[in-house]
Amino acid sequence: MSDSETPSAKEQLTRSLREKCNAQSVATPTSTSSSMSLPGARMSSFIPSRFESSYARPAMKTTSVYFDEYPITSTFVIIFSSLTIFPVLTFIALSLFTILSLSFLALCCAFVVSSAVILFFLSILILCVITAFFASGFFTALAISTYPLVAFLETKTRFIRPKRREPSDESAVVVDMKEAPSEDILVGDVKQENL
């Protein structure tokens, strides 16, 4: 309690707060006798009464006690909270919006880039498959066309008689005589000397 506060001002603020709390309790009925006639009224009256009994009443009692002890500080906190709730909620909303929008943008960019890379590799694959198709067609045609050619050449050699060579006295073996003959020539197991 500060020295500048007079007990009369403190009592006036306390009385005002209690009157507001009492007016609130009179405005909200605790019995559900009139609302029980509606089909969904029991559940709808249960939720506010449970919230009221579990959270709202204890919070109002705590606020009332705190306001009795520190009326100026309580007034400042209430006004400060009222003035800052909108900027704080706006900051949280904008932060979440920024995070979500940038994440979405990043995912979209990743999707576009990956699609472009996949299309590039797909075009290379299609080019390779088309090249292999035409190469296999060419090699198949080549293999098919070589069979008649080979068959033609075989039949040609059967009907054309080779030229006869006249027998000669010369040997068909050619010996390269660039090296000087050695003195000992091995023929079989017997060592013979050159004459």
UniProtKB/TrEMBL annotation:
UniProt-annotated stretches for the region Disordered: 1-39
Organism expressing this protein natively: Favolaschia claudopus
Keyword flag Transmembrane helix: yes
Chain segments annotated as transmembrane: 76-97, 104-127, 133-153
Protein name: Uncharacterized protein
Biased composition (Polar residues): 1-11
Keywords assigned by UniProt, alphabetized: Membrane, Transmembrane, Transmembrane helix
Highest taxon above the source species: Eukaryota
Lineage, broadest ranks: Eukaryota, Fungi, Dikarya, Basidiomycota, Agaricomycotina
One Pfam family cited in the UniProt record for this chain: Promethin
Biased composition (Basic and acidic residues): 12-21
Bias-annotated ranges (Low complexity): 25-37
Keyword Amino-acid biosynthesis: no
